[in-house]
Amino acid sequence: MDADMDVDDEEEYEDDGLDARRARWTATGTGALLALVGLAASTLRFTGSAPVLVPGAYAFGAGVCGLASVLGARGRTRRALWLLIAGVMVMALGDQFD
Asked: Rounded to 5 degrees, what angle do the CA atoms 58, 94, 53 make?
């Protein structure tokens, strides 16, 4: 009976490791993608007739998402998630000024 429980515990630990790895990759990939999109939007808004605050907000939000990507790669997925949310909110706020 104990041998069966040990096997189940080992499988559970392997699944936890896989979940953590997926969370790191997801945070890293999402942060990098949002940073690239924010920089592209900042460049497009800077070349247009938008106020300076708009491309600045996109660039700042992209920087925050880039930082979230770095934290996600280091395994700080909870902090990375909150930074991703904050970065997108800054970009959305900048879009409201347009």
From this structure: 85
